[in-house]
Amino acid sequence: xxxxxxxxxxxxxxxxxxxxxxxxxxxxxxxxxxxxxxxxxxxxxxxxxxxxxxxxxxxxxxxxxxxxxxxxxxxxxxxxxxxxxxxxxxxxxxxxxxxxxxxxxxxxxxxxxxxxxxxxxxxxxxxxxxxxxxxxxxxxxxxxxxxxxxxxxxxxxxxxxxxxxxxxxxxxxxxxxxxxxxxxxxxxxxxxxxxxxxxxxxxxxxxxxxxxxxxxxxxxxxxxxxxxxxxxxxxxxxxxxxxxxxxxxxxxxxxxxxxxxxxxxxxxxxxxxxxxxxxxxxxxxxxxxxxxxxxxxxxxxxxxxxxxxxxxxxxxxxxxxxxxxxxxxxxxxxxxxxxxxxxxxxxxxxxxxxxxxxxxxxxxxxxxxxxxxxxxxxxxxxxxxxxxxxxxxxxxxxxxxxxxxxxxxxxxxxxxxxxxxxxxxxxxxxxxxxxxxxxxxxxxxxxxxxxxxxxxxxxxxxxxxxxxxxxxxxxxxxxxxxxxxxxxxxxxxxxxxxxxxxxxxxxxxxxxxxxxxxxxxxxxxxxxxxxxxxxxxxxxxxxxxxxxxxxxxxxxxxxxxxxxxxxxxxxxxxxxxxxxxxxxxxxxxxxxxxxxxxxxxxxxxxxxxxxxxxxxxxxxxxxxxxxxxxxxxxxxxxxxxxxxxxxxx
Length: 649
Prior knowledge:
Elements: E1 6-12, H1 17-33, E2 36-42, H2 51-58, E3 71-75, H3 86-98, E4 103-107, E5 114-117, H4 121-134, E6 140-144, H5 150-165, E7 175-177, H6 182-194, E8 202-205, H7 208-220, E9 230-234, H8 238-242, E10 248-250, H9 254-269, H10 282-285, E11 286-287, H11 298-308, H12 318-323, H13 327-332, H14 335-340, H15 345-355, E12 364-370, E13 387-395, E14 402-403, E15 409-412, E16 428-437, E17 440-450, H16 459-486, H17 496-508, E18 515-523, H18 526-533, H19 535-551, E19 558-563, E20 566-573, H20 577-598, E21 606-614, H21 621-641
Helix pairs in contact: 1-9, 4-5, 6-7, 15-16, 18-19, 19-20
């Protein structure tokens, strides 16, 4: 167990500007204090329109064992469903039930969880001062969120207070409630255009989305921005800076809020530790654009372009490749085509391993799958199995790497990722992301990076996960159909086709001194059971023989339903005649015990024969099966002759 403390961070849509700023604050403080960070995040919002997909994403919040963390930070805003907090409350309740560790929420108050209020007062005051002092605006319209929403009311109150300090009184008609989304801005534009609301000099919107919706509707109706009306927004989203009329906007204070949450936790878990406050730089947080009449900040705009643009081709230098893998590189790599071409689960895992280079920088990439992820008989599986399979680990140095479903390491789901709690020289961040298809839970991936790395989760990672999910589901279906063609549907045992395939693998791995063993089992009196008690009972009797045959089949052997009521057991190894006799005796004892438990009105019996041969190049499986079949038939005749009264064993 590592002595390094680990902070759990719950958020959603980790590639968003909002989540990235929170992560920046948390990472900076945890780097100062030497803490690891475990991020559990759905890649989409909880109210995503594709409900089944959203359900699959939300499963990630069932994974963390909160008792193993030293503190927990919750991004409440990202977990709110359409302004309802029930979902976030459920997560908080689960946390309370499993840990006494300090829990701090950011953004929206929820229950009795300690909160760090998203104190953006300085930002909104700066927007107001910019509109009045730089551009001389007198009539200002304030557009905020839902009426009664604490954050919306707080932002409005701060703007009203700052404008009053600047000597301006805001008209009642210019105090507008919306929903933080584009439609609110569009509706305000319609009200201004219709004359319902007088045209102000400027609109300050408490979200970029509302500001962009307003500008779009005004321009569509020949109202010029900024000549006729100036527009300012809040949060400095990519869309705002890259809009055709770049939006003057300011970054939120969420990085500092998240950093303060870590400081609260630190003060509780390490009372004597020096708290090093997070420092704001307000000047760097204001992004000037054309929407208010200012000259845009070219450097900031270019940085946003670089992080957003779909580059089809580049002359990639080593540094650029390491630090700036973009969505264009992902799409032009043809990774989806290679992944979906996988024919077997192991091939798919191997292809995912090869494709993981696109997620650089990383220290390790892990893929943890549910134990039953390949079971197509399980319908609508939601949630993780009690144990997980570590099917893939790709490291930066390619040392100790692993990619196999067949030989995967199995661990308790409560551990989440055993490696996360190992000793390390430096602090790391572990991003836990759901792997699923629709609402069917497949497993989860973990991306491990140095906490000091500047890169955060982006569009490349989200789409890589989508490609991986689709490939895993496709290979599940392929595996299912192959499994059906290799296995008997009634008993689940290998059929003749499966026998041939598996036998060839066994033969390739055989040692020169090994022998080939075959056991043929044939049920007695199946016709009598079918005619007297019905074919359903006959099928049950066949399954009973199959179960007994499987129960005496050792790990290195094959159990086959050859057809009808005939079964084979096939093995390659150091067999002798004594082992054969013991195998037959085990079968009879197991069959007797099984049939006594069933208490059927008929006896379920079978005859068995065995054959053994040196595994020479010219020995044939079908020839040895025929030899064992003759021995079985001889045994069956003796049983009939004795009329089941004499034990001929």
